[in-house]
Amino acid sequence: MAIIKKFRIKSFKEINSIIEFEKVSLAYGNRLILDNINFKINEGQIFGMLGPNGVGKSTIFNLITGLINPKNGKIKINNEDATKYPVYLRTKKFKVGYVPQYGGFFNDLTLIDNLKAISEIVIDNKNLRSDRINYLVSRFELDNLKEIKAKFLSGGQKKKLVIALSLLSEPKVLLLDECFAALDVLTIKMLQEVIVNLQQENRITICICDHQARDLLACVDVAMILSNGKIIAQDTPSNLVKDINAQNAYFGDSFKFN
Ligand SMILES: Nc1ncnc2c1ncn2[C@@H]1O[C@H](COP(=O)(O)OP(=O)(O)OP(=O)(O)O)[C@@H](O)[C@H]1O
Ligand SMILES: [Mg+2]
């Protein structure tokens, strides 16, 4: 498996942290989903989250965007306590873009009308909307799909549309929930390159979770493994696959990476 990233930024120590979870706990009823977790995503980093179904990865995205609030703890964005900020404020103020695990588009609108509708919400200057739409249509090679209703697009085409929608606002932080799911090998590679280019050319901070562990590890700088409400390991991809806790809880003993 080719590593998509040509180099990984080794140290983010002097770099600003853009997302920070401080002692965050979350429960649904009496089921504790996240148990006092702490982690930081640094500015410009591509950060991966791995963990079994139901461990709380989408929940972490919902906590970052403000769709849900923690039982305890703080969520800081750009060093500011954003725990009490509503969704729209986090999106606008900190420029957080979000690609949800499911949906994220208008089924009955064509691909181009989806882009137009969201551009009217997120791009204030009317004159800039069509330039941005054209740029994204060309970048994601969506030109010949423009007039198709979103509900008739294939799984991979829908994914590309939702990612294009999330980039309309030129986010500084991009959250990708299972962006590789249901995509063919070449589309995954295209998307990995898009992700790495967004980091390297646009300095966007990106947080991805996915069950395609190899595809995720090929494009992240660091990743963490969640298990039973806790972060049990966090490291660069090559160190993480050697980590004994990560092997026991997630990779098993026969997982090979590059
Ligand atoms: N609104 C809700 N009410 C009750 N329980 C919920 C709710 N939303 C999520 N959960 C529970 O929280 C846990 C974490 O869910 P989450 O969707 O974050 O998992 P995930 O790691 O994203 O899983 P997957 O890999 O399957 O997408 C699950 O056990 C789920 O059942
Ligand atoms: Mg999920």
Question: Can you describe this structure?
Answer:
This protein is an alpha/beta fold and 258 residues long. The protein has two domains: 28-95 and 172-258, Rossmann fold (3-Layer(aba) Sandwich), CATH 3.40.50; 102-170, no CATH class. Helices cover 35% and strands 24% of the residues. It is built from nine helices and ten strands. It has helices at 57-65, 87-94, 111-122, 126-139, 155-167, 185-202, 213-217, 237-240, 244-251, and strands at residues 17-28, 31-42, 46-50, 72-77, 80-81, 96-99, 173-177, 205-209, 222-227, 230-235. The strands form two sheets. Strands 6-7-8-3-9-10 form a six-stranded mixed sheet, sandwiched between helices. The chain has a four-stranded antiparallel sheet with strand order 2-1-4-5, with no helix packed on it. Helix 6 (185-202) links the parallel strand 7 and strand 8 (205-209). Helix 3 packs across helix 4 (126-139). The mean pLDDT is 91. Bound molecules: adenosine-5'-triphosphate and magnesium ion. Magnesium ion binds at residues 57-58, 101, 177.
- Main sheet: which strands, in order across? 6-7-8-3-9-10
Q: How many helices?
A: 9
User: What is the CATH level 1 assignment of the largest domain?
Assistant: Alpha Beta
> What's the CATH architecture name of the largest domain?
3-Layer(aba) Sandwich
Low-pLDDT sequence parts: none
Rg is 18 Å
Give the SSE layout.
Blueprint (H helix, E strand, L loop, with lengths): L16 E12 L2 E12 L3 E5 L6 H9 L6 E6 L2 E2 L5 H8 L1 E4 L11 H12 L3 H14 L15 H13 L5 E5 L7 H18 L2 E5 L3 H5 L4 E6 L2 E6 L1 H4 L3 H8 L7
Parallel strand pairs: 3-8, 3-9, 6-7, 7-8
Antiparallel strand pairs: 1-2, 1-4, 4-5, 9-10
Helix pairs in contact: 3-4
The structure holds adenosine-5'-triphosphate and magnesium ion (MG).
